Amino acid sequence: MWKTILRRLLVMIPEIILLSILIFILAKLMPGDPFTGMVTPQTSAAQIEQLRIKAGVYDPWYIQYYHWIVKMFHGDLGISYQFKTPVGTLIASRMWNTLWLSLITMILSYLLAIPLGLTAGRYENTKLDNFIMFYTFVAYAIPAFVFYLLGVWLFGYKLGWFPTSGSVDVDVTGGLSYLLSRLKHMILPAILMALISVTSVVQYLRSEVIDNKNQDYVKTARAKGVPEKQIFKRHIFRNSLLPIAAFLGYSITGLLGGSIFVEQIFNYPGMGLLFMDSIMNRDYSVITALVLLYGILTLIGSLLSDIILSIVDPRVRIE
Amino acid sequence: MKNKGLMKGLVALTTSVVLSATFVSDVQALSFPTTYTNHKKSLKGGTLRVGYVSDSAFKGVFANELQSDSPTADVAGFGWQDLFKVDKNYRYVKGGLADVSFDRKEKTATVKIGKNVNWSDGHPVEAKDFTYTYEVIANKQTDSASYNDQVKDIEGMEEYHNGQADHISGVEEKDNKTVVLHYKKMTPDMYFSGSGYIVDVVEPYHYLKDVPFDQLASSDKVQKHPLFYGPWTMKNIVKGESIEWVPNKYYGGPKPKLDKITVELVATNKAVSALKAHKYDILLKESPGVYNKIKNLKDYKVLGEKALTYTYLGFKVGHADKDGNSVMDRKTPVRDRTLRQAMAYAMNTEQLDKKLYHGIRYRGNTLIPDALGKWNDHRQKGYPLNLKKANNLLDKAGYKMQKDGYRTLPDGKKFTLRFLYDGDALVARNYMEQWKKIGVKVKLKDDRIQNFNTFTEELLNDGKGWDLWMSGWDITGAPTHEAKSYATSSPYNFAHFTTKENTALIDSLSSEKAFDQDYQLKQFYKWQAYMNKEAYVVPRDFEYYTYPVSKKVKGYTLDPEKSYWVWSNVSLTK
């Protein structure tokens, strides 16, 4: 298996190079540039043009790509045109915000989805199952931003239970109060995201449980007189969870993706909002770094998922 | 600091208002008080909670010459006070943290900084800070976008910019608190805030001198721990989200009455709920959609100021030559003044403003917004909706109506105009319907609404295949500055119209005679009348910026003559 993992990692190198070229070209093909928004009667068109030239906007794409890649190998992702901050520092600061929010969301989401999916599958076609299915259909159908706004209105403004903006109170400094403030700011968006993102896991688990209920090994267990509770606990549930484990790799790497909707509604400065901002403002250095990061994370996520699946399911081997 | 204007991509609204096609004659523009008078006794201290409506994080480059981000400029406004006081026409007057006086004969501007004006670390604001600020603007390593034609008018500025001199010869430090700026030429614009000739906000030399110019914008001293000489200084910042301000104990003006101000970004779609939940005492940058939903909240008073902004309809009649000068040579039906005027009369802007913007926007009468006070010629009517007049104009000029409901050109040829637009589809559809009513066929360029970047590229790069566009400008308090955008050599004359009369009028605004304000005003009125008559660029609407203020707030005002010390004077009551 180790050989295969190493081979997969090596194959990633040309994939990432190809991806970086594609991202770079696509970013440059977008109309406008980071200086487009600076055009006003109060600025000098000649000065803006000078800034463009200095930034290499008019260089051929391969020259710009060469400069970018050489700098990247020296650990320099460039400077954000908008934030005037090194891109690495900028992404790192946003990454932590997103990582914590996504982690809490993922934990809440699985805590909610696994029992719901297993229950729905076990009590198939009962009122309980119908209720869970109804919830998943509603969660799937309702536009995420509407759901988030309703949540903010109810829990943030009407009931006043949670803060509604930002990632931390501005007047807390360090220590436990800082951590608690961070947590307090993350709970509402995390709960709302978790509530709406459970659909696929619940449905998938339910189908798995229903499928497994009719498998030969379950019939055998029943024939041997194993109690029904034990059949579900030791056999059906365990086997039904295998495909969910396979998602885990993507989920781990997906933690850094961020959510544009939730971050915008909560003014939560994470990766999603940064990505949106950088596209709107043609902040090339940030766009290319982020898309490349997402691409790399997806490749790693795929590998991780395969590895996890091969560990939890002895029938699967990476070859 | 005056809000630097970004080209206004018109904000797309999510409303689905259907406009009635009938003429509404009784539309009245709203008017707002600029001050809320609270007679209750002020409480001692307290925290003012300010919400700032924005859907993107503020970038947080706290050096005025290096940032181009409106939210940063606005949230830093508690510490970035303009050094100079202005009157209601944005002309410099005495009585601010610094005063400026001009000597036309010597071609100088002399700035005297008040003796008690200090940075938030206690160091006095000095003449060297002025010199340093101009160096930040002009040094190529800082990549400042503020290096403009007005700054270049200072003696020795270009030499410094090009690396031929190690200092700017035209910035003379007479003593610690006095700076004399030597200009190549004097213009009447100089007397106005925002003209770009004199920096309104300076940087602390003693604090930043060790930071290399190329690292200034990204330095912690600028982004995390900036100094301010205004009434408030930053205690804590959560980058992109919120700032906690505390009084600058070394401030040279009246001592702030509050203990603390917190300013926090709030997303547009949450602003209404936030206000209804009394989360903020003042809400800045409210949008028309928000205004309509909170205007009747009993605990708030909505104040308003006429904004330094306007929108317009332009007709592209030429192109820019290799030197960037406009040449009026396009073969397009919109070269005909009658057609342009008829299309302007067909615009139902008042109706649209009432329906879509709840009266916060109102039809403009000239290309100089009435926010500029006397510089706007109130006698001008502009182009109020008048379909009958529009049809008559076209009939008389020989544009014959055909069976399909569209007119032909006077030579009998059919024509379709192409419309470049990056705003709300509803607005575009509305105006195209209006033009259809007078038989003028208008289609969107590429049959779609453009995105902001494509739209701007089309304008700046003299794009082909379109005849008219709609856009807007945020402007400064210097009125001639605005008019110069329409000069033959201006890169912002997107219509590329050029006439001898326009050139003569624009030149006259900055001429030697124009130092006489009465003459300048007269010329200004002539220019506005001329622009209206020619209709190469037609004013569309002006706007109010509205600010819901809690009735617990005392001393808040938007009046430009009274607002200079506003953040010192604001207090809270029971």
Task: Explain the overall architecture.
By secondary structure, chain A is mainly alpha-helical. Chain A has a domain at 94-255. Chain A is built from 14 helices and no strands. Chain A has helices at 2-29, 45-54, 61-73, 87-122, 127-141, 144-158, 175-197, 199-213, 216-223, 228-240, 242-254, 260-265, 271-280, 284-312. The model of chain A has no long low-confidence stretch (mean pLDDT 86). Chain B is α+β, with helices and mostly antiparallel strands and 574 residues long. Chain B folds into 3 domains: 47-80 and 220-306 and 545-572, 3-Layer(aba) Sandwich (D-Maltodextrin-Binding Protein, domain 2); 85-208, Dipeptide-binding Protein, domain 1, CATH 3.90.76.10; 309-544, Dipeptide-binding Protein, domain 3, CATH 3.10.105. In chain B, 24% of the residues lie in helices and 19% in strands. Chain B has a 5-stranded mixed sheet with strand order 8-9-10-1-11. In chain B, strands 18-17-19-13-20 form a 5-stranded mixed sheet. In chain B, strands 4-5-7-6 form a 4-stranded antiparallel sheet, covered by helices on one side. Chain B starts with 46 loop residues before the first strand and ends with a strand. Mean pLDDT of chain B is 90; it is low at 1-27.
Radius of gyration of chain A, in angstroms, nearest whole number = 24 Å
How many beta-strand runs of chain B? 23
Describe the oligomeric state of these chains in a short phrase. Answer: heterodimer
The CATH class of the largest domain in chain B is identified as Alpha Beta
Q: Specify the structural class of chain A.
A: mainly alpha
SS element count, helices of chain B = 17
Provide the fold topology:
The complex is a heterodimer of chains A (319) and B (574).
Chain A: H1 2-29, H2 45-54, H3 61-73, H4 87-122, H5 127-141, H6 144-158, H7 175-197, H8 199-213, H9 216-223, H10 228-240, H11 242-254, H12 260-265, H13 271-280, H14 284-312
Helix pairs in contact in A: 1-14, 4-5, 4-7, 4-8, 5-8, 6-7, 8-10, 9-10, 11-14, 13-14
Chain B: E1 47-53, H1 70-75, E2 85-86, E3 92-93, E4 98-103, E5 108-113, H2 127-138, H3 149-152, H4 157-161, E6 171-175, E7 178-182, H5 205-208, H6 220-223, E8 232-238, E9 242-247, E10 260-266, H7 271-276, E11 282-284, H8 288-294, E12 300-306, E13 309-315, E14 319-320, E15 326-327, H9 337-345, H10 349-357, E16 361-363, H11 387-397, E17 417-420, H12 425-437, E18 442-444, H13 452-460, E19 468-474, H14 479-484, H15 500-509, H16 517-534, E20 537-539, E21 541-550, E22 553-554, H17 566-569, E23 571-572
Parallel strand pairs in B: 1-10, 1-11, 17-18, 17-19
Antiparallel strand pairs in B: 2-3, 4-5, 5-7, 6-7, 8-9, 9-10, 12-21, 13-19, 13-20, 14-15, 16-21, 22-23
Helix pairs in contact in B: 9-11, 15-16
